[in-house]
């Protein structure tokens, strides 16, 4: 298994298998997302408690799942980069940061838009919301550190180490914020539970989640392609006898 | 017919929340995709030059 | 090894003491920060009394953040760190002495005078003991957690703002447990202190190691 791993960690070989996959992913994500949106907006029934506002869930929950998954992806690929020094994994991790920022922002925005009609406020200092805000700031920190080292290769290791420390830190933050919340806030306002999710609601939820996943893979592969091409152009430009 | 469409857009009076919640994220994501695709096209042009 | 450790510790202490700018900066910044809180609350003593502990913790956080910037900067820019590496001096000693001297000159004065600051902000004197212990367990964590981040940003453009932006999310758990610990101290529950001690003992083992790795990478 590790043999294949080595073989396809080479950027050029990676690109050859990536191109067809990217096309398939692009088409699939568009199809799944449009079907999911039709289901979410028209076909799924309104909740008997939250009425039509439950439709926000179909974009909020998949975005939240995606932002957590992307962080896990960044964490594992930077660990692989630090251990085996494959440059491809660093590029994968670096390019997925911007998408992660977009998805986390989506989760926060739709969450607050969902909160206004159901809880009565846009923002509550609830454990989950607060830890998501911290996740957003960690993403922004990763983005910032990428930008501030853009002229040297020193930023590569810096980025990977920051992703590593952030990955260790996130569970601690989640735990501490949970602890802080249980002591200070009555949890009674925030009972969103009681929505028994039936199968008609699960279909658009999963469709949107799968569509977002494919979309993420598509954008990631496009960005990696851009990055590799940029490196190639830089290399040929800086070559002495050209 | 028009009434039905208006009723659907109104969404029980929660139209603002639902439509912004769908509109802003989707425009963000798709505009990012368009930007990246145009970048890729530019890169391909450069590559063929070299 | 131990001899070398004390030699380096003495060198760092001398460095701090001789450069009066460095040794007084953090504590004077803390005092200035503390001055802001009573002024912004108007003249309501009630509000001040309630937020005394929180404001002392916030000021400790800010003074730590400000002084983190100078942790490795001078040695890195002078090339002293590179010399250490060439001469094969174990980096563990350098990192630990830096951390200890940073803690001694930024947090130790705050810990010692924290009861006085509490009276200064008209907080209740029952909390003084709890505040003292929570600062004692919490502030070493500020220095320890800040260390790898200070090492990460070496050589970055616009380092100060970047350092502050990166390190605040990592300081959040410490400040949460620290402030909560003081509040539950009077009820006889010390669970937050145990948690702080647990995090401290884990991070003493792990974080210097990560810092050494990062420093080695930045010196390549």
Descriptive overview:
The complex is a heterotrimer of chains A (242), B (50) and C (220). Chain A is mainly α and 242 residues long. Chain A has one domain. Chain A has helices at 2-8, 11-43, 57-84, 87-119, 127-148, 154-184, 199-238. Mean pLDDT of chain A is 81; it is low at 185-191. Chain B has one domain. Chain B is mostly helical and 50 residues long. Helix content of chain B is 88%, strand content 0%. Chain B has helices spanning 2-10, 15-49. By secondary structure, chain C is an all-alpha fold. Chain C has one domain. The longest helix of chain C has 28 residues, at 191-218. In chain C, 40% of the residues are buried. The model of chain C has no long low-confidence stretch (mean pLDDT 88). The chains are: A mainly alpha (242), B mainly alpha (50), C mainly alpha (220). The interface between A and B is medium-sized, with 35 and 25 residues.
Draw up the topology in text.
The complex is a heterotrimer of chains A (242), B (50) and C (220).
Chain A lengths: L1 H7 L2 H33 L13 H28 L2 H33 L7 H22 L5 H31 L14 H40 L4
Chain B lengths: L1 H9 L4 H35 L1
Chain C lengths: L1 H17 L1 H21 L4 H24 L4 H6 L1 H7 L4 H16 L1 H5 L1 H7 L7 H25 L6 H27 L5 H28 L2
Helix pairs in contact in C: 1-6, 2-3, 3-9, 3-10, 6-9, 6-11, 9-10, 9-11, 10-11
In DSSP terms (H or I, runs of 4 or more residues), the helix count of chain B works out at 2
How much of the sequence lies in strands of chain B comes to under 5%
Helical fraction of chain B: over 70%
Low-confidence stretches of chain A: 185-191
**Sequence of secondary-structure elements of chain A:** HHHHHHH
Distance between the termini of chain A: 40 Å
- C-alpha-based Rg of chain B, rounded: 19 Å
Compute the average pLDDT of chain A: 81
Helix-strand makeup class of chain A: mainly alpha
Shape of chain B: rod-shaped
Look at the structure and give the mean pLDDT of chain B. 83
- Total discrete domains of chain A: 1
Largest sheet of chain A: none
Number of domains of chain B: 1
Structural class of chain B: mainly alpha
């Amino acid at each position: 298994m590790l043999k294949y791993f080595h073989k396809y960690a080479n950027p050029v070989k990676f690109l050859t298998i990536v191109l067809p996959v990217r096309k398939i992913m692009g088409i699939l994500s568009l199809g799944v997302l449009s079907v999911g949106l039709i289901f979410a907006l028209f076909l799924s029934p309104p909740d008997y408690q939250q009425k039509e506002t439950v439709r926000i869930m179909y974009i909020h929950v998949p975005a939240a799942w995606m932002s957590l998954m992307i962080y896990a992806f960044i964490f594992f690929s930077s660990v692989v980069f630090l251990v085996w020094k494959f440059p491809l994994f660093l590029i994968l991790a670096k390019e997925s940061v911007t998408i992660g920022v977009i998805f986390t922002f989506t989760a926060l925005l739709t969450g607050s838009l969902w909160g206004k009609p159901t809880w009565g406020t846009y923002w509550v200092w609830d454990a989950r919301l607060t830890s998501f805000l911290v996740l957003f700031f960690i993403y922004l920190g990763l983005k910032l550190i990428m930008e501030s080292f853009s002229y040297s290769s020193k930023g590569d290791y810096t980025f990977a180490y920051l992703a590593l420390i952030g990955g260790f830190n996130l569970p601690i933050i989640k735990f501490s914020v949970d602890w802080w919340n249980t002591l200070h806030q009555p949890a009674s306002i925030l009972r969103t539970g009681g929505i028994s999710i039936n199968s008609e609601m699960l279909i658009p939820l999963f469709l949107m989640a799968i569509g977002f996943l494919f979309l993420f893979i598509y954008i990631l592969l496009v960005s990696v392609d851009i990055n590799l091409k940029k490196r190639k152009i830089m290399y040929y430009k800086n070559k002495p006898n050209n | 017919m028009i009434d039905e469409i208006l009723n659907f857009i109104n969404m029980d009076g929660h139209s603002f929340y639902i439509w912004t919640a769908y509109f802003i994220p989707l425009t963000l994501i798709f505009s990012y995709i368009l930007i990246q695709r145009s970048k890729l096209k530019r890169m391909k042009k450069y590559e063929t030059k070299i | 090894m131990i001899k070398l450790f004390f030699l380096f510790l003495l060198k760092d202490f001398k460095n701090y003491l001789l450069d009066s700018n460095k040794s007084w900066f953090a504590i004077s910044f803390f005092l200035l920060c503390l001055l802001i809180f009573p002024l912004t609350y108007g003249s309501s003593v009630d509000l001040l009394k309630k937020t005394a502990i929180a404001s002392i913790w916030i000021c400790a956080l800010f003074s730590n953040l400000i002084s983190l910037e100078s942790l490795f900067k001078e040695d890195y820019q002078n090339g002293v760190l590179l010399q250490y590496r060439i001469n094969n001096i174990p980096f563990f000693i350098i990192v630990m002495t830096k951390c200890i001297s940073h803690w001694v000159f930024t947090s130790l004065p705050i810990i010692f005078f924290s009861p006085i600051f509490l009276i200064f902000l008209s907080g209740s004197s029952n909390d003084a003991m709890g505040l003292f212990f929570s600062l004692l367990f919490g502030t070493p964590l500020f220095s320890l957690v800040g260390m790898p981040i200070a090492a990460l940003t070496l050589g970055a453009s616009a380092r100060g703002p970047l350092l502050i932006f990166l390190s605040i999310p990592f300081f959040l758990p410490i400040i949460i447990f620290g402030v909560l610990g003081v509040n539950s101290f009077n009820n006889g529950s010390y669970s937050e202190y145990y948690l702080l001690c647990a995090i401290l003992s884990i991070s003493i083992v792990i974080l210097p190691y990560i810092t050494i790795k990062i420093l080695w990478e930045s010196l390549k």
